[in-house]
Specification:
Length: about 1150
């Protein structure tokens, strides 16, 4: 779907949209006494490079001129006056793209009504109703046989309509409950979405002060500061930039980074990522008028037609999914290429749980369908033989309605068996469990962006964590220094250092750091000073303050505009250099960076007298041994600070970086400490106990990394493990041709614990290598933490990507699945706990539901075959269905997690969903319930000394006999629900029951409703009131479930050889036909349109709609992968808007189809 839409025609098509929305064209040009109109700005932002520069010069002289017309100042920014800001919003729009309208409650009701089984029930109920009002002519119904006879008196005959009405009523209940659940789910996600949006802030200059404001509050005329890792929230023009490189692939599809500068190409577009450098931009377009906004408006228009097409396809939670799938951009070219290739391959493999559940649901659905069909056939055949063969009657026209009524009754029984058999509560349980967990995980500092990440995390077997900020506090302080031939073990007294060397050092640190990094006074008296900006730079600035000097005067003397050239820090350089012009017109370069890298470029060093002297390779080796390695072994990060002078004439060629940043003079090497977070060692022990291997992947040098890893407990003394750096890692995993080989990676990763001096590519290679590995029988499930822009590919590749909420760049957050709002490793352990809890909640629900399924289906089936009438009536079955589906999923899915979850190994991808213990419980309780119910069915009337309810004719009044059976059945389920709280064969089923108020209230509530149904349900529920003694017997049998549960727990599972676990995950190789049919849906839209007819036909043959429904509901609730698909199909509609009128192309390419261009402020917009 690599749609190519040219900028020109985007403009054309948007011109049509806007005036309509703004109320006439004149509204569009309403300038609100600014010297420039909205349309002019939009036209300007359509241009690129030299063309744009020319336009700015012709119309406004320069950017400064445009700034004045917008009543703003390039240096001081806006005044921040609320009236002025409001006026700007009125004139140029707000920085907000309105999300797609949420589905109304009625729409959700309509969707819930599409359920196939419900439709069948509705039809049956309507036929039943119609027939009950039909009185056959003539009173001589005797000749139709005893079929119609029996205890039917006048009043009863008129009550015939009740059953049909009751079924309709219960269908309405089920529909309302489903719709309400969908509605609250959608509401929750919208809340989550708005929280993600509020989290994102951006730095702007107002009244000469740099402040952070929520992205939605940006207005045209603001001066915003952009830096490495930002996702641009609005369009703007660069006022001043240092080495700024932008990834525009989300708009253009070109993966090469674009260099931006005020004099060559100053146009910055929303939704693009800053990959390097920093700068300031003048905001010129926000919200719907920004480039991203324009494209989204186009998409919005395409959406209408899309909806109509989608109607044929399965119903889906489009809105929610769209909201949740935030905009991702392609990371680099290789990803793009592979994405193009992959566009017609099924998107992402299903999450572990989903795969298993889908399979299980299909199996159960099939079994249910077969059972219900057999039930109907047996009932009909039996009836026909009994009436026409045994009694030898002939079919008479006037008897037809009576017979039809019988057939309708049989049909209703069959459908009820199906309704009970199909576990439509599964998707609900998954959704509730996930939604509940997501809500609670917020409190544990996990902001979940993709729902299935929550559950995948429970299966994690490996965590690749960053060091800085995750395992450590990210509060950098200089604790050792080497200055003037002297190694100081603590910060030296300024008097001990040569004054000229000290001045050079202060200038080097103050100037060669981003001016956004600064030390602020503490919030509380006596607290630690606040570090704002890059933490390493803050550590160095703190060092300046410790030396009793101040960096602000230096910066005031040389403001940011006067910096001659900046080579910003990136993961390749691992250093940063700044060039300034001195008063005598000569130049000086200051450089700082990883000590072993910068020292290699040094040819002299400042001695004790403040003079530079030669620095030979031999001296360097000695320094590494005596200074750098001892610092690193104490876990310090070593930074070297150096400088170099250049003559004014001839001016060097600044673009030849290799010739400029060399031949340096070393001023000092400092050791920066970043203490390990106090709670991390415990968290790592928990992970290791839970069967999760923690690996540290860091950019620091190997000695520092090893020291920190030992402090954290990642490296245990006496263990056999590997620590290596990026170079060695690459040497070992590549063959002679330099290609990466999986078997080489397989030799390394199982023992690898620390990867130091690693580049983002190394991180990605490691993650991919572990995921693709087949050395262990279980496929590894890998979680990765990252905060930098360059961590994007690894975060995306991982099964679960964690981004840092505080230190993380926007790019990392976009690529991640979960955001750690406190940047703390111990929050990952909480995520594991919640993930495992989701898995266990689903298992508890399954254990409960399958017991009910097995019993209800067998009872209805055998009862129908032997007594021609199901002991459980349609309405009663629907009530049971409601208890076991909706209520049980609520009760069991909201169990809070316990620490005990971390004491077992991960289940793994191939483990069955229903373990042997659960199978034992299901069958054990099933046997108990069946024995009780069949005993009651066949000899119950003797035990309780009541009338027999078997073989009752049509429309006969409800019997006590069948009421007792129904009551006991429901009470057994209620007590079994308490048993279902434990799935690993624990004895104490009441353990922690009061910590879950939802569970208690549901069990009590169900009990109260059951009493009401029995005592006052009457004809609609086919119940008759019971006396106290009968109630006590019912309760006694119910409580028996708990005692029986203890008995089952005593039987050792491993003795039961005959049991088979069910619901296995599947290896990637075997694709069953069912899954292929699933994956059919995951193919991109163009193909889907072509093949929709075939697929529907194929599906109609291959799988009955019931199961499809279960599966697709699953997809809706469990995963948000649908979003990317739907969005991609919408983008493909942009094909219609292509018209190659201007040479500039916007290619919305596959790699970011999931991404649709990142929009203003990362608000993800449908």
């Amino acid at each position: 779907m690599s749609t190519t839409a040219t900028m020109g025609d985007m403009a054309n098509s948007t011109v049509e949209f806007y005036p309509k929305r703004a109320g006439g064209a004149e509204a569009n040009n309403h300038t609100g006494d600014f010297g420039v109109t909205l349309t002019e700005l939009r036209d300007l932002m359509e241009m690129r490079g030299p063309e744009a520069l020319q336009k700015i010069q012709e119309s406004y002289d320069d950017t400064e001129g445009l700034c004045q017309r917008l009543k703003s100042s390039c240096n001081e920014g806006l005044s921040g006056n609320p009236e002025d800001l409001e006026k700007r919003r009125q004139t140029f729009g707000q920085n907000f793209i309105p999300p797609k309208k949420a589905k109304t409650f009625l729409e959700l009701v309509w969707e819930a009504l599409q359920d196939v089984t419900l439709i069948i029930l509705e039809i049956a109920a309507i036929i039943s109703l119609a027939l009950s009002f039909y009185q056959p002519p003539g009173e001589d119904l005797e000749m139709c046989g005893n079929v119609a006879g029996g205890a039917e008196d006048e009043g009863e005959a008129e009550a015939g309509w009740i059953e049909g009405a009751a079924i309709l009523l219960s269908v309405i209940c089920v529909v309302l409950v489903t719709a309400f659940n969908d509605w609250s789910k959608e509401k929750q996600f919208r809340g989550l979405q708005s929280r993600i949006e509020q989290e994102q802030r951006f730095a702007v200059v107002r009244n000469s002060n740099v402040i952070q404001i929520p992205v939605a509050e940006l207005v045209v005329g603001d001066v915003a500061q952009v830096k490495y890792g930002d996702l641009l929230p609005a369009d703007g023009i660069l006022i001043q930039g240092n080495d700024l490189k932008i990834d525009e692939s989300s708009l253009t599809g070109e993966s090469d980074h674009v260099t931006k500068s005020a004099d060559k190409d100053p146009m910055l577009l929303s939704g693009t990522h800053v990959m390097e450098g920093s700068g300031r931009m003048l905001v010129t377009a926000v919200g719907e008028n920004s480039q991203t906004g324009i494209i989204f408006t186009l998409l919005g228009a395409g959406e209408g037609e899309e909806e109509k097409k989608e109607k044929k396809a399965k119903k889906q939670d489009g809105a929610v999914a769209m909201e949740m799938q935030p905009l991702k951009s392609a990371e680099g070219g290789e990803v793009e290429e592979s994405a193009k290739k992959k566009s017609n391959v099924p998107k992402k493999e299903k999450s572990v749980l989903q795969g298993k559940l889908t399979k299980l649901a299909v199996q159960i659905g099939k079994a249910g369908l077969v059972m219900s069909a057999i039930t109907v056939i047996i009932l009909v055949v039996y009836f026909v033989i009994e009436t026409f063969v045994v009694q030898g009657r002939t079919w008479m026209a006037e008897c037809t309605p009576v017979y039809v009524q019988y057939f309708v009754k049989f049909f209703i029984i069959g459908v009820t068996v199906l309704v009970v058999a199909v576990p439509e509560g599964l998707p609900l349980a998954v959704t509730i469990s996930l939604a509940y967990s997501v809500k609670k995980m917020m409190k544990d500092n996990n902001l979940v962006r993709h729902l299935d990440a929550c559950e995948t995390m429970g299966n994690a077997t490996a965590i690749c964590s960053d060091k800085t900020g995750t395992l450590t506090t990210n509060r950098m302080t200089v604790v050792q220094a080497y200055i003037g031939d002297q190694h100081y073990r603590e910060v030296p007294d300024p008097g001990q250092i040569n004054s000229s060397a000290l001045e050079t050092l202060v200038s080097a640190i103050a100037i060669n750091s981003a001016y956004t990094s600064k030390i602020m006074p503490p919030d509380v008296e006596g607290g630690l000073a606040k570090q704002v900006g890059n933490k390493t730079e803050c550590g160095l600035l703190g060092f300046v303050l410790d030396l009793k000097r101040d960096y602000t005067p230096v910066r005031e003397q040389i403001p940011e505009e006067k910096l001659y050239k900046v080579y910003t820090f990136n993961s390749v350089r691992k250093s940063m250099s700044t060039i300034i012009q001195l008063p005598d017109r000569s130049f000086r370069l200051y450089s700082k960076g990883a000590s072993e890298i910068v020292l290699k470029k040094c040819s002299s060093i400042v001695g004790a007298n403040g003079e530079a002297r030669g620095f030979r390779p031999r001296d360097r080796e000695e320094m590494v041994k005596k200074v750098i390695e001892p610092m690193a072994c104490e876990g310090l990060r070593t930074i070297c600070i150096a400088y170099r002078d250049f003559p004014a004439d001839p001016e060097p060629d600044w673009d030849q970086e290799a010739d400029i940043v060399t031949d340096l003079t070393c001023i000092s090497v400092v050791g920066i400490e970043d203490p390990v977070r106090p709670e991390v060692p415990d968290a790592i022990v928990k992970c290791q106990r839970a069967g999760i291997t923690v690996r540290m992947v860091t950019g620091d040098n190997i000695n520092t990394a090893r020291a920190i890893a030992a402090k954290c407990g990642i490296l245990q003394p006496g263990e056999d493990f590997l620590c290596m750096d990026g170079k060695e890692f690459n040497r070992r995993i590549r063959n002679e041709k330099g290609e990466i080989e999986q078997e080489r990676i397989d030799k390394i990763w199982p023992k690898l614990r620390v990867l130091a001096r690693s580049s983002p590519t190394d991180k990605h290679t490691l993650v991919k290598g572990i995921i693709d590995s087949t050395v262990l029988e279980q496929r590894q499930v890998v979680a990765v933490t990252g905060d930098g822009t360059n961590d994007g590919p690894a975060l995306k590749k991982a099964d679960v990507g964690f981004a840092m909420g505080i230190a993380g760049t926007d790019v990392a957050k976009e690529a991640s699945d979960i955001i750690l709002t406190d940047d703390n490793f111990s929050s990952i352990v909480k995520a594991v706990m919640w993930g495992r809890n989701v898995y266990d909640s689903i298992s508890k629900f399954l254990q409960f539901q399958l017991t009910v399924n097995v019993v209800a289906v067998i009872v209805a089936f055998t009862g129908a075959c032997i007594t021609q009438d199901s002991p459980l009536k349609a309405v009663q079955m629907l009530w049971v269905n409601l208890i076991m589906d909706t209520f049980a999923s609520l009760a069991l899915a909201t169990e809070p997690p316990t620490e005990a979850l971390l004491l077992r190994k991960p289940y793994g991808r191939n483990n069955p969903l229903i373990s042997l213990t659960m199978m034992k419980n299901i069958l054990g309780h099933g046997i108990y319930q069946l024995v009780i119910i069949f005993t009651l069915l066949f000899v119950g009337e003797k035990i309780f000394n009541i009338d027999c309810g078997r073989n009752a004719p049509l429309h006969s009044p409800p019997s006590e006999h069948y009421t007792i059976i129904f009551n006991i059945f429901v009470l057994m389920q209620l007590f079994n629900e308490i048993n279902a709280r434990k799935i690993h064969g624990e004895r104490n089923v009441f353990d922690g029951i009061f910590s879950n108020p939802i569970f208690c209230s549901i069990v009590l509530g169900t009990f109260v409703v059951q009493v009401v149904i029995i005592q006052f349900g009457g004809k609609p529920f086919s119940c008759t009131p019971l006396n106290v003694e009968q109630w006590l017997w019912c309760l006694f049998v119910g409580v028996g479930e708990l005692l029986w549960g203890q008995l089952i727990a005593t039987v050792p599972t491993n003795q039961l050889k005959c049991l088979k676990s069910a619901g296995h995950g599947h290896s990637t190789d075997e694709m069953t036909e069912d899954e292929l049919a699933d994956d059919e849906e995951e193919i991109d839209h163009a193909e889907r349109e072509l093949r929709r007819g075939q697929i529907l036909w194929f599906r109609g043959l291959n799988r009955i709609q019931t199961q499809m429904e279960v599966v697709s509901t699953f997809k809706r609730s469990g995963s948000f992968q649908g979003a990317a698909r739907r969005r991609s199909s919408v983008l493909s509609q942009l094909h219609d808007v292509t018209n190659i009128s201007t040479p500039t192309h916007v290619v919305l390419s596959t790699a970011n189809a999931s991404a649709a261009p990142g929009n203003a402020g990362g608000e993800s917009v449908p």
